[in-house]
Amino acid sequence: MTAWSRVQRARNADGADQTGLHRMFDLHALSCAGDALVAVGLAGTIFFSVPVGEARVRVALYLLITMAPFALLAPLVGPVLDRFRHGRRYALATTMLARGFLAYAIADQLDSWVLYPAAFGVLVMSKSYGVARSAAVPRLLPPRITLVEANARGSLAGTIFGALAGGIGAALAQFGAGWPLRLATVVFLVGMVLSLRLPAGVDSDKPEVLPRVFALLAHKEALKLWNLPVWAAITAGGTLRAVYGFLALFMAFRVRTDDLLLSPLAALGAVAAALASGAFVATLIGTRLKLRRPLLLDAIVVGGVAFGAMVAAVFYSLPALVLLAFGTALASGLAKLAVDAVIQERLPDESRASAFAHSETMQQLAWVSGGAAGLIPVSGQWGLFLVALVVAAVTLRVSAWAWAAHRASVAPATAPASEWTATSGAR
After folding, report:
1. CA-to-CA distance for 108 and 120, rounded, in angstroms?
2. Can you say whether residue 199 is alpha, beta or left, with left for phi > 0 and alpha for psi between -120 and 50 degrees?
3. Contact present, 127 and 360 (Cβ < 8 Å)
């Protein structure tokens, strides 16, 4: 059996080809590939082409200009897309077309002010795609695949194609930073066509219950999203995403100033490969993982990252950093699967799409917050010590929540669901 035949078999397994879920896998692979190409093009312009001090300022400016408005607009994405629940395929196609146009605009305006608003637009459209995809996938599930398995298989396809596209983009970047962005335009246009070819079942006639914008903790429907188990899972996942973002940017600058026995580019490549490998292994595990105690898994992986950060701080070296990066990416990926499992288990069908939208937004903002903290110029050891302390504190909190949720599940009469919801919202 050839490699391509194996890919096709995995893509169509368990009835995915009968419901059209395999096309969603293809679409997500193209989306991740396009985003990877955009990231390579922007990295060559913002980070690698300038000295360390200027690069730090450019990255901070990028995070401020793109992510600050994104944090305000992200909660609007779900309610806006819900208006198009009868045309979700067109919403997905629109996000692909918009990203393709903006990538092409960035390619021709790398040295002008257009770079930042266009990059912001790509982020918003990428987020919109993620929300629309989260609402579409459950409607294409065959009986033999759970939502967690479907998301893991989609993430696996996205990770593989994103890594391949990143390598191709890095090669194209040798001829100019605009070339990866031009290729991204082509990838997104292909994704637009594929979006329009999704099965009609993607479009739902049943309206979804979405929370009121800017009144998340006050609205009675929104409170359903934040019961104790969901809040614990999202806290653990968000913390690990923040550590992921911190390591990605913190180490990008530390390798350029610390003596790690390798050239800065080689050391950064080792850390980036470890992050990518950890994410890949997590998605690979998730394709067959049966989560019966997702909150217990959260407590274990968060505690493991805290311990790993402390060890890396004490034995500060490239091997320790590579192991920490791999472990953090693996833990973050498993925590994301735990979030999916808790949402699927603890929330009703009409609330899941909204819950996924909010959890993805929080994960994205957590990554940005961690990355912003990674721009602070402190020594490598002190930075990792601080990470270890913060994550250790979160471990204690998540473990307490996990134990409380477990006690509530084995003795539900001790506290009604509404009481748990109100309590978790207050926390």
Report:
1. 16
2. beta
3. yes
Those residues with Cβ within 8 angstroms of residue 349's Cβ, 6 or more apart along the chain or in another chain: 138
Quick one: DSSP state of residue 1?
A: -
Tokens for 276, please give them. 């990518």
The span from the CA of 347 to the CA of 178, in Å, is: 44
By the 8 A CB rule, do 266 and 203 touch? no
Counting beta carbons within 10 angstroms of the beta carbon of residue 142, is it exposed (0 to 12), middle (13 to 18) or buried (19 or more)?
middle
- Phi/psi of residue 49, each to 5°? -90, 0
- HEC-encoded secondary structure of 13-59: HHHHHHHCHHHHHHHHHHHHHHHHHHHHHHHHHHCCCCCHHHHHHHH
How much is the pLDDT for 27?
92
* Burial class of residue 392, CB neighbours in 10 A (0-12, 13-18, 19+): middle
Token pair in block for residue 24: 């969603």
CB of 367 closer than 8 Å to CB of 241: yes
What token pair was written down for 412?
């539900």
**Among all chains, which residue has been given the structure tokens 């009409």?**
350
Q: Which residues contact 121 (CB under 8 A, 6 or more apart)?
A: 98, 102
Cβ–Cβ under 8 Å, residues 60 and 375? yes
Query: What confidence tier does 229 reach under pLDDT thresholds 50, 70, 90?
Result: confident
End-to-end distance of the chain based on CA atoms, in angstroms? 54
Residue type, 156: L
Report pLDDT for 301: 92
Distances (CA, A) of 77 to 85, 117, 327, 359: 13, 18, 32, 13
- Distances in Å between the Cα of 297 and the Cα atoms of 102, 312, 339 are 39, 22, 11
Neighbours of 263 (CB within 10 A): 11
Q: DSSP letter string over 152-200?
A: HHHHHHHHHHHHHHHHHHHHHGGG-THHHHHHHHHHHHHHHHHHHTS-G
Give me the amino acid identity at 56.
R
pLDDT at position 249: 80
SS3 90: helix
Structure tokens at 133: 């995809």
- CB neighbours (10 Å) of residue 196? 12
Among candidates 192, 405, 172, which has minimal Cα distance to 296? 405
Mind listing the pLDDT tens digit for each residue in 246-299?
888 888 778 777 777 777 777 877 888 888 888 888 877 876 766 678 888 889
Question: Whole-angstrom Cα distance, residue 55 to residue 256?
Answer: 11
